[in-house]
């Protein structure tokens, strides 16, 4: 159990921090919430006190005999400020100590994570950029905000990342495992491609994208620059990842190859269609047009095999990871596929009813080109993602 300080400053996204607080307490951490005065205009003191089970104060003048302005920061294992407004980033960067939260930030000797949320103009303002750079230089982790709908009609970077994403970064930091992918660029493909039959119909597959998105989220949490090539996934964009949306296998190939040219690792978690219709009707095929024509198929490019081929002569990507969905002879088929596609690691899952597709859990065996294998018991897709990144990190260093 760790002692966590959750600082909340006055942004409309404060309500999402209640969920973050729950994630901390439900995983056994002791959380002390330190809001700014104005944060309480959005969510009041009783909510924080009830959810955390701890007293809540904003000022250094309460319970002075306990010296809270020093003690709270000193005894914390992690301070996370979510949402962090432009104002709180500015005060932290300049070492101000005009409320309990900024006093806590000055006295904390533990890791500090900021999850900013503000309008795009504020996030992109040179003053905020400079404050973020200062905080990062001093060792604080400033999570990139998500891109999307802001208060009012605006959209752009500045949204508070999903509480699960902030939690993921904090979980990583608290466990002392560090940001071992910092400075690395990784490419993850996720979801399932669609091969058009006509403008309204396609041949697709059952991939939900959950595993690929978990890989992207955990890579961001471990400090990587992440390009996520996303094929038809209905999940929110992971904060801090560059998301490239594609539809068909050929579009996915273009996006992956263009990002892979300077990538440390490529993880092909997408279910790429092996075949596509030879002919795509320009207009909707009508029922009234008589007996249906058979759909003739042709082979799609195999992106993973192509990357394996490229690597024979090029330096990038340095580590190549494939996924294999198998229904029978899982390990033997997996081993043959790893060799055929020239990858370093192959994550083999057994697929079938209630296995792998669309579920939050996954179990797999990771085969490596040197003959090794790691069995990953059934668990959250984030855990599987972390094992994959552990193996990638070992190969990169
Ligand atoms: N893959 C790919 N391009 C394709 C098909 C698959 O890059 N056209 C990648 C997938 O992203 C995955 C791996 O190859 O990482 C294995 O996919 P899988 O569907 O299990 O293998 P197949 O190549 O389709 O082989 P088979 O049909 O024999 O199972």
Automatic annotation (TrEMBL):
It catalyses: N-[(R)-4-phosphopantothenoyl]-L-cysteine + H(+) = (R)-4'-phosphopantetheine + CO2; (R)-4'-phosphopantothenate + L-cysteine + CTP = N-[(R)-4-phosphopantothenoyl]-L-cysteine + CMP + diphosphate + H(+). Pathway: Cofactor biosynthesis; coenzyme A biosynthesis; CoA from (R)-pantothenate: step 2/5; Cofactor biosynthesis; coenzyme A biosynthesis; CoA from (R)-pantothenate: step 3/5. CTP binds at residues 274, 284, 301-304, 323, 337, 341. Binds 1 FMN per subunit. Its cofactor is Mg(2+); FMN. Residues 186-397 are annotated as: Phosphopantothenate--cysteine ligase. Residues 1-185 are annotated as: Phosphopantothenoylcysteine decarboxylase. Residues 3-168 form the Flavoprotein domain. The keyword Flavoprotein applies. GO terms for biological process: coenzyme A biosynthetic process; pantothenate catabolic process. Keywords: Decarboxylase, Flavoprotein, FMN, Ligase, Lyase, Magnesium, Metal-binding, Multifunctional enzyme. It comes from the Bacteria. GO terms for molecular function: FMN binding; metal ion binding; phosphopantothenate--cysteine ligase activity; phosphopantothenoylcysteine decarboxylase activity. Pfam families: DFP (PF04127), Flavoprotein (PF02441). Its EC number is 4.1.1.36, 6.3.2.5. InterPro entries: CoaB-like_sf, CoaBC, DNA/pantothenate-metab_flavo_C, Flavin_trans-like, Flavoprotein. Residues 181-393 form the DNA/pantothenate metabolism flavoprotein C-terminal domain. One of its GO terms (cellular component) is phosphopantothenoylcysteine decarboxylase complex. Catalyzes two sequential steps in the biosynthesis of coenzyme A. In the first step cysteine is conjugated to 4'-phosphopantothenate to form 4-phosphopantothenoylcysteine. In the second step the latter compound is decarboxylated to form 4'-phosphopantotheine. PANTHER family: HOMO-OLIGOMERIC FLAVIN CONTAINING CYS DECARBOXYLASE FAMILY (PTHR14359), PHOSPHOPANTOTHENOYLCYSTEINE DECARBOXYLASE (PTHR14359:SF6). In the N-terminal section; belongs to the HFCD (homo-oligomeric flavin containing Cys decarboxylase) superfamily. In the C-terminal section; belongs to the PPC synthetase family. This is Coenzyme A biosynthesis bifunctional protein CoaBC. It comes from Planotetraspora mira. The gene is coaBC.
